[in-house]
Amino acid sequence: MEKKLKVRFAPSPTGPFHIGGARSALFNWLLARKEHGTMLLRIEDTDRDRSKPEWEANIKAALRWLGIDWDEGVDVGGPNGPYRQMERLDIYKKYTDKLLAEGKAYYCYCTPEELEAEREALTAQGKMPRYMGKCRNLTPEQRAAYEAEGRKPTIRFRVPEDQDIVVHDEVRGDVHFESNGIGDFVIVKSDGIPTYNYAVVIDDALMGVNCVIRAEEHLSNTPRQLLLYDALGFEKPTFGHISLILGPDHKKMSKRHGATSVDQYRQMGYLPDAIVNFLALLGWAPNSDQEIFSREELIREFSLDHVAKNPAVFDIKKLNWLNAHYMRQLSDEDYVAFAVPFMKEAGYMTGEETGEKLEWLKKVILTARDQAEFGKEIPEKVALYFTDAFDFETPEAEAVLKEETVPQVMGLFLEKLAAAENLDHASTKALFKAVQKETKLGGKKVFMPVRVALTGNQHGPELAEMIPLLGKERTAARIRGSLAKAGVSL
């Protein structure tokens, strides 16, 4: 009987949850859900200087916000705990003692200075820097002498010589490494804390993880881990190493490219469905040209067969396009609720509004639906409703008001505006039609000067939507003010 798929996501809580980590978590989650397998969350906190509880909380909150749940691990428990590495030190020690007893590992007393000198010497000779085995065969007397000096040893794994180590990678095919190029590597640091390559093997094996999907940067760690699987007598999982995420300049994504953490995108007003849809397409290609996927569709379609070897480029325009789509799918009520925190941050709302004021604000917010690409843009797109002081966006916009038909158009528009009994979407449209009919001018000659006079811009929300929200008095005052600024008299 084939074993049930079990994947894991095992982040280090050393900083805000990176968007690249979110993609690794998503790929694991999609595969687990597709295969009806198990998703495990483990926290790798052996970097004692940088690991912090607040970063673990940040990671878990980001995963939950994205809708990536887990079946076993921190917070949910399971039969293979504890699920934080610093709570598993006794488990690692048991296996370390076994490796030492079998001669597969040994104590190393080399100082950092000695190791650096060795690295520099090998580099100068044009050789790959690696540990050359100085402490491989120490006598008990030599060990005692080093300890008398107060040296605290690390424990190194004895790498077998002349082996061709093959990583059977689900994404990259077979990747070969020579054991002679690795050198005996540290598995336990001098403070007794296991290294990443060592702890991860024991954890994955004991927790029953049989498929490891992770970032390409871990590929070079895999031969060391395969050697440890063999030495410890553990069954090896399958591996799949997904490509790096690059910025638009094709360099590794970093802060210079903009936001890099999931929480930054949440705070800017990106929706979890948009982030999930976007991340899924970063390095994975569906069988069709489809770009907008529900989670159910992603789960059904996802496979490692279609994960690319080449780096994926983080295209913020694509993310913005997707996010704008998901924002437009929100109901009016949900869109307004989504916008309120950003409106409050901009000072356009207090959150205490009621009655007519609240209804007006709701209508104002909804004018941004076809313009804003993420939440933080909503206040920018509706700013025109909150101040009558603005400049012309461009010289071209101002030039629109200097066209010869403008005095005739504006005079007639203001006349009909003053006479209008009601000002709603339909009556505003009728008002423009009446001006067009009487002036015998095309739509652009009528609409554009009014738009520029009201906003200073040649683009923006629909005029029949905007004018009722501004009201008759503000609309007329803005038009007169803009004409005066442009030196146009009626």
Notes on the protein architecture:
- This protein is mainly alpha-helical and 490 residues long.
- It has helices at residues 19-34, 53-66, 89-101, 112-124, 140-148, 196-206, 222-232, 262-268, 272-280, 295-301, 316-328, 332-345, 355-366, 377-382, 395-400, 406-419, 425-439, 443-455, 463-485; strands spanning 6-9, 38-41, 72-73, 105-108, 154-157, 164-169, 173-178, 186-188, 211-215, 238-242, 245-246, 312-313.
- The protein has 19 helices and 12 strands.
- The strands form 5 sheets. A 3-stranded parallel beta sheet has the order 1-2-3. It has a 3-stranded antiparallel beta sheet with strand order 4-5-8. It has a two-stranded antiparallel ribbon with strand order 6-7.
- Helix 17 (425-439) crosses helix 19 (463-485) and helix 18 (443-455) crosses helix 19 (463-485).
What is this entry, summarized?
This protein has 490 residues and is mainly α. 46% of the residues lie in helices and 10% in strands.
Query: Helix proportion of residues, in percent?
Result: 40-55%
- The chain-level mean pLDDT equals 95
Strand content: 5-15%
What overall geometry do the principal axes of the alpha carbons give?
elongated
> What integer value in Å does the Rg equal?
32 Å
Low-confidence stretches: none
Please tally the β strands and state the result. 12
Continuous helix count: 19
Q: Largest sheet, order of strands side by side?
A: 1-2-3
Kindly, what is the distance between the CA atoms of the first and last residues, rounded to a whole number of angstroms?
Answer: 87 Å
Based on secondary structure, the structural category is mainly alpha
Largest beta-sheet details: 3 strands, parallel
